Amino acid sequence: MAKHASRFICQSCGTVHPKWSGKCDDCGAWNSIAEEASSETTPRGLTSGKGHKIEMTALDDKAEDAVRALTGIAELDRVLGGGLVAGSAVLIGGDPGIGKSTLLLQTVVAVAQKGLSCAYVSGEESVAQTSLRARRLGLLSPQVRLASATSVRDIIATLDTPSPPGVVIIDSVQTMYLDNLDAAPGTVSQVRAASHELIKMAKKRGMTLFLVGHVTKDGQIAGPRVLEHMVDTVLYFEGERGHQFRILRAVKNRFGGTDEIGVFEMSDAGLKEVTNPSALFLSNREGAISGACVFAGMEGSRPLLVEIQALIAPSYMSSPRRAVVGWDANRLAMILAVLETRCGLRFSDKEVYLSVAGGIRVGEPAADLAVAAALISALYDIPLPAASVMFGEIGLSGEIRAVSRVESRLREAEKLGFREAFLPKHSAFKGLTLGLKVVDNVAGLMRVFGGSAKRDKRQEEAAIS
Ligand code: TYD
Ligand code: MG
Fold it and tell me: Nearest residue CA, atom 21 of ligand 1?
């Protein structure tokens, strides 16, 4: 007998609580617990029925490779790890209005031109709205079937046929519902159950399923994290609303790496691929100016390149100002002390301003080397070598220490068009077109500016006297 009772489920992490409370003990989210009806049956134990024998396969080279099809959108194919995989599920998340629907509409039309049939099911827009947008963008293809539906039962009844479409888009998973569940669309139970049914169909019929997922204010895909475990690939589509550039990143991929990014530009004719992202990245920067250094950083599992800017100004106060935006002030004090002690540089009579461009906060010690380079560059008014990035942690004796995920940082720098990287020893990587220069200690960093630590100390003293 089915037992109908209420459960209280955190909408952010999916934890089931026995009663309502204002805060989820598990993930710490406030006001995220909602009541949902439960229709779970009591477990019957394994004695009541016999299971079927499952077939075991040897792990040898006879295992078949995944069947892949290129979409024709190179930036997307790269992020997917080499095109669409038959029988896989891709979750694509992003802020509202960032361009998820546009990207997927362009994808289905591009795929259809290669001869695969596609279905685009929107739970958010009517067929008229979707086709109006497609017509405006010149995306017409009889191979693409549009529908506006939210019932998973109806969608499966339509698509789960012996000749199913090759690619299915569900926009978005938060609008889908299963009628045998007593919860509203968008709740954890509905999102989980609807995705489960759709993924099951995709695996059975060998379709490539794209699920669009909304994101919450803090940038996570709304609904339980379990959704990210259920799919094979998780992509994020990001970008600033005010800017036309969009970046597609893989945060999980069972069929490829997660270090690839795809860069697009939103124009009045839809999304355009940006084949030379370095041009766009460098266009925001002011050529070769002193006091600026690009740091090849990581944000969680994602590589992120940011520009670190330093400004040194004369001070007439007994304790000159040190102002930091986007970095740790104590860490700055430490770097200044190391540069003063180990290289003989003088900051004590100068104001020091340090900022991470673009309003991002950097928490990694790996930014030390880039910060030190920006400071020295600002002090001497010498720009750093063009198209170079830096990373490395600085120790108190002035040595540059190795950091994690070197390959991701270098690949992202290479992808964004940088030509040279300054990095700690023991972190070289082969197979890159990027020039690698090892910096052992801060004295070695001084040589990047054409001086040795000792000579610079003498120059400083000469300047003071
Ligand atoms: P959309 O794909 O609907 O975003 P999402 O599905 O992620 O919510 O994109 C909508 C935004 O994109 C909208 O604000 C307008 C902009 N846009 C363009 O600038 N040019 C275009 O050709 C299209 C189709 C949309
Ligand atoms: Mg949309």
Answer: 270
